[in-house]
Amino acid sequence: VKDEFLSLISHELRTPITTIYGNARLLRDKWNRLSDDTREQAARDTAEESERLHRIVENLLLLTQLESGQSPELEPIHLPRLVARWIEAFRRREPSRRVELYVEGHVSPAIGVPTYVELACDNLLGNAHKYSPGDASITVIVREEDEAAQVLVRDSGPGIDPAEVDQLFSPFYRSRRTGSGAKGIGIGLAVSRRVIEAQGGTIWARPLSRAGSEFGFSLMLAENEHEDSPERKAG
Amino acid sequence: MTANPLVLVVDDDQPVARMVASTLTLEGFDVSVAHDGKEALSSINARAPDAIVLDLQMPIMDGRECFRRLREQRINTPVVILSAYGAEAAQQELGAEGFVDKPFDPDQLVIVVRGILDSEQPS
Question: What are the angstrom distances between the C-alpha of A162 and each of A134, A156, A208?
Answer without folding.
Answer: 25, 16, 11
